[in-house]
Amino acid sequence: MRARRLRARLKGWGGVGAMALACALAVVFALLLPMVRSHSEGGDAVTGGQGVARSRQARAAEECADPEKQTLPPSGADGPTIEAIKKRQGAKRKLIVGVDQNSYHWGYRDPNSGGDAALEGFDIDLVHRIAQDILGDPDAVQFKAIPTDQRIPAIKDGRVDMVVRTMTINCDRLADVAFSAPYFRTGQQVLAPKSPEITGYDGSLAGKRICTAAGSTALSTLRQDQLDGRLAADADLSTTVPSQLDCLVRLQLGEVDAVVTDGALAASQAAQDPTVELKGEAFTTEYYGVAMKKDAGDLVRRVNQILVEWRADKTGGWQHSYEKWLSPTMGGNPAKSVPPEPRYLGGS
Predict the structure, then answer these.
(1) How far apart are CA 318 and CA 300, in angstroms?
(2) What angle do CA 82, 146, 79 make, to 5 degrees?
(3) Contact 280, 200 (CB under 8 A)
(4) Which end of the chain, N or C, is surrounded by fewer C-beta atoms within 10 Å?
């Protein structure tokens, strides 16, 4: 009898031991799994997430062609995103939009306008148009000033419904956000003091200090051009700033020799400072779009419908805003004075 009880106790302890061993192995496996995944996805235990993001963006860039055409066809219908915006109550029933407040004639506060120096400019006109269509009130907008390098994080984090801030549509960004059809055509250009020292995007930039905005297409383009030999290897790209206007300040202080940014923005900066000018021609072709969350398909379609109507409006639409804000700084360039033709996924 005592022998049977002893065998039972030993058998029970064996079961407990086996269970303890299984639990220990499970814990070890759980601890090791993230490290294994990180290594298999192209990063180590610390940088694995960044490696995944970079590889995802690289795949998107390889598969993407004509990024300005990677948008949904227009529609005036409501959907879950628009319905959520409309359900906001009281003073919060507004469209929340990330904008610039320092880009002359795009999104800026005119200190000479009096009163509260309300935001105005080409981008701001578009925001009011979108608010009018969705909420029935052009002033039902909560503007949020967003630095260049915070445009995508602000969208992904849900801090804004959209960004309307001279934001170039490109393949890398399409991995993170959705864009409307393009509403303006531009290209990268050099801004420098009025002297013969710098002549454009050419060999005259060798050894020069160039300012760009962090997170901008200008910076990524210059870095790639250095790698590919299209830009002098000794051109100094170390000066980056949160806001593009800060580059103009650095140029005025003599801390840099040139600025590279979208020609549309460069023209506005040249209009603010008569001692600088655009040098040479634009060396890229780019398009501005309204950026939104990737899963906000109904909002993308609605904005595209609004853009169709804004382009077609001959009295208060795209052309009116262009003549009011941009024509004086664009020098009457006919290529810039018409909106780009929209193209959509699955056809025109």
Answers:
(1) 18
(2) 10
(3) yes
(4) N
CB 230 within 8 A of CB 292: no
Structure tokens at 161: 């419904």
Q: What CA–CA distances, in Å, run from 152 to 93, 294, 307?
A: 23, 11, 21
Contact assessment for residue 251 and residue 259, using Cβ atoms and an 8 Å cutoff: yes
Tokens representing residue 65 in the block: 């062609």
Give the ranges where 229-284 is alpha helix by DSSP (H). Answer: 244-252, 263-272
For every residue of 40-96, which 3-state class applies, written as one string? HCCCCCCCHHHHHHHHHHHHHHHHCCCHHHCCCCCCCCCCHHHHHHHCCCHHHCCEE
Residue 49 or 173, more confident? 173
Residue with tokens 């009163």: 115
Best CA proximity match to 191, nearest among 167, 172, 213: 213
Tell me whether strands 178-179 and 276-279 are parallel, antiparallel or unpaired: unpaired
Single pTM value for the model: 0.79
Residue 35 half-sphere exposure, CB side, CA atoms within 13 Å? Answer: 5
Tens of pLDDT, residue by residue over 184-229, are 999 999 999 999 999 999 999 999 999 999 999 999 999 999 999 9
Residue 288 structure tokens: 């501005």
Question: CA angle, 59 as apex, 54 and 65 as ends, to 5°?
Answer: 125
pLDDT of residue 333: 60
CB burial of 127-155 (b: ≥16 within 10 Å; e: otherwise) equals bbbbbbbbbeeeebbebbebbbbbbbebb
pLDDT-derived band at 60 (thresholds 50, 70, 90) equals very low
